[in-house]
Amino acid sequence: MAIYLISNTGKEFSYNSLKKMFEIKSVQSVIDYISYFEESYLIFCIPKFSYSYKQQQVNPKKVYSIDNGFSYTNSVSFSKDKGKMLENCVFLELRKRFKEIYYFQEEKECDFILKEKNKIAGAIQVCYDLNEESMNREIKGII
Asked: Which domain holds residue 136?
């Protein structure tokens, strides 16, 4: 499960999807494993932004790795996906500066929503290859 999560840094996951994928009998076991990975600083998970705490808990989370080199070396992915690695790098820097980091996704996605003192402090999009098509998508996501 750890290798899967490291290979999918910057992507969403749910406890139920991992339970089914790895044929684990209990969702609580998956939650425990994720907790162990986070406590050992192997991965970090951020919730989907919502004003409802309950919604933050039940919605899929996004996973990030402690180190791009570690992810690259241990990933089972055949792609180098520079965009994914850039997003992970930005997350690691934001983690040093902000206690509360979220992602947002409805019709469009915003990579990071930053919260300080019960207020939205910022919204950040990460894009490795900015062209006309990706610029429109990224701008709509941040708006």
From this structure: 2-142
